[in-house]
Amino acid sequence: MQTRKEPLSSAFLLGYDVEHQDPAITRAFLSRAVQLHREFDFPATFFVLGETLERNIEQFRQIVGDPLFDVQQHTYTHKPLKTLVQRNSSGVTLIQGGSLERIRDEVTRTSELLASSLGVRCTGLTGPYTYYRGLSDRPDILEILWDCGIRFLRTDGRNHDDWQPVSFDVQPYTYELQGFPQLLEFGIQGWADCLLREEIGWDNHEGYLAELRSNLELVVSRDLDWSYLQHDWSSLRADPELRLTEALLRMTREAGAIPETYAAYYQRVVGNA
Question: What is the CATH number of the domain that holds 15?
Fold first, then answer.
């Protein structure tokens, strides 16, 4: 079901999946991204992989406590929560999901790491790869996530081909039908940054920005929300100064969309996590 949205115009939710295994990549990204977001007074959420957090704890300690930023999780090793059958121009690819035991361990381990190293109570999760219809068909996984303290998700991020783009008609909804009326699914709309840039060419900055601008115009004109996914490594690729990210922050402000963290949105439309 679609959630009740308090009047706020179009919300823009920018969530970074921070997942690279090389600390140099993650640290370069965090340094520049944090600088940009503070310059634009622009909220963001970091969904960090447990393995990545272990390699960059001091860098994340410098973020925690800043009201602009929210830190959540992306599982521990990036094992998908459920199986994908991905169809695109390259063919058909099977990406195997984890067992229920593996899922519980990955989520619990990362939440405990966030608590012990950063003092963060984790309530949000981005599912590795994301999936068609999120976890609507997997109430067994939803139950595990709920038991682990997860209250909001980004897992609905693929179309019927387990590919992208995803329709902007897919707006945030709760898993009430599956028995979890306070578990909010944000999904993502359009393309994830890395898949779009792979499609159009990593050096095609103008084409990338044109797609983002078109999406902003769409969501603002229809009073929709946009949950957008970037990554640490892809934000830097062919753009070490994050000029594309800088342009996105500026365009969002100019378009009139309201930037918000995922946790703040959840509290506004559902209540305390």
Answer: 3.20.20.370
Q: Is residue 2 part of a domain?
A: no
* Residue 3 within a domain: no
| Residue burial 79-102, b: 16+ Cβ < 10 Å; e: rest | bbbbebebeeeeeeeeeebbeeee
Adjacent-strand bridge partners of 132? 158
Q: State pLDDT tens for residues 127-182.
A: 999 999 999 999 999 999 999 999 999 999 999 999 999 999 999 999 999 999 99
Q: 136 in a domain, yes or no? A: yes
Quote the CA–CA distance of 33 and 236 in Å, as a whole number.
10
Q: What is the CA radius of gyration of the chain?
A: 17
Q: What is the pTM of this model?
A: 0.96
- For residue 9, give both structure tokens: 């115009």
